[in-house]
Amino acid sequence: MEINATLFGQLITFWLLVWFTMKYVWPPITKAMNEREKKIAAGLEASERSKRELELAEHKALDIIKEAKQNAVMIVDQAHKRSVQLVDEAKEIAREESKRILEQANEEFAREVSQTKEELRKRLAGLAIAGAEKVIQRNLDANTQATLLSEFAAEL
């Protein structure tokens, strides 16, 4: 292999090409590559941050759902307890009402028994007077009859 001027010319042209490329072509390419690398790194970082935020949001959502379920169970339990309480109160009111109605019925019955006894006394007194009239064979006036009835009713 012979070293001649063509080889030196090619060597100088190669060095000029390398120098020109390093001076004018390479810096914009490296700058563009660095910017692109930064954008990619920022995108990856944002992606990771988003992923963490998504996981946190999912955990938070699960916690909120769990709390809501617990609240729902608690509300259902309270409603059940309240319904039992209302049923018990209604039973108690019904017992009191039935007791009151029974007392009224007993009082009404006692009143009717008393009225019936009084009516029977009056009838018995009338019958006794009628029997006495027949025995005595005379009619008594109204005042005498009323006096006799009162005395007879008092004795009964």
What separation lies between the terminal Cα atoms?
A: 167 Å
What's the assembly state of these chains? Answer: single chain
Rg = 60 Å
Average per-residue pLDDT, rounded, comes to 87
The total beta strand count reads 0
| Number of separate helices | 2
* Low-confidence residue ranges: none
Secondary-structure element order, as H and E? HH
Characterize the overall form.
Answer: rod-shaped
Helix percentage: over 70%
Gist of the model:
By secondary structure, the chain is mainly alpha-helical. It is built from 2 helices and no strands.
Describe the protein's architecture and organization.
Helices cover 94% and strands 0% of the residues. The protein is mainly α and 156 residues long. The mean pLDDT is 87.
Ordered list of secondary-structure elements with their pairings:
Layout: H1 5-136, H2 142-155
Helix pairs in contact: 1-2
Question: Keywords, please?
Answer:
2 helices, about 160 residues, mainly alpha, rod-shaped, single chain
